[in-house]
Design brief:
Oligomer: heterodimer
Number of helices of chain A: 0
Strand content of chain B: over 45%
Strand content of chain A: 35-45%
Number of strands of chain A: 9
Number of strands of chain B: 11
Structural class of chain A: mainly beta
Low-confidence stretches of chain B: none
Number of helices of chain B: 0
Amino acid sequence: QFVLTQPPSVSGAPGQRVTISCTGSSSNIGAGYDVHWYRQIPGTAPELLIYGNNNRPSGVPDRFSGSKSGTSASLAITGLQAEDEADYYCQSFDTSLNGQGVFGGGTKLTVL
Amino acid sequence: QVQLVQSGAEVKRPGASVKVSCKASGYNFNQYVLHWVRQAPGESLEWMAWINTGEGNTKLSRNFQGRITITWDTSASTAYMELNSLRSEDTAVYYCARDSIYLYWYFDVWGRGTLVTVSS
């Protein structure tokens, strides 16, 4: 079981909007810790997509956006493109276990 | 450009140790924190440890305490992660990744990963 819960898979047609949820608890997201998102093409290293809940690194298109509320966060992707097909992971900090980084279980995005 | 270059794939027997290196270039090695993260085949990411070479301190995940050693060579801008008493469940790709010196816990630069296979 993962400290941060993500849906195993989501899908959408090209041009559509999809969201990926990330549910935590009072010891991580609910405690005010930031949520970050990564995209990973199988066989390659993760790539930072969103940091600090809703900030995009340079080079990441504005089709990607993040939000956070209470004990959950979401990643939204608009104008879905075939190249968006990948695995997506959320990440935060958790105060349990002496404080450490935690990841979600990952969500496989399929572009139909 | 900013990059982290990791050592090559390893195959180890159960009970052995493995040492993975991560060489930083394109930025000041001592002005950022480095994390180690692993990913078992088909699984999610698991945080293992961070090192602050500028202040000379580290923090280890409780899941690996007693089995993991983090060292570094500032002159070579290289960090090392050694994992002992390997078991089959340690088969994974091991990544190093860069964080701010302020430990914002997001990783903007990643190494390409080192595959460690534990098999008898």
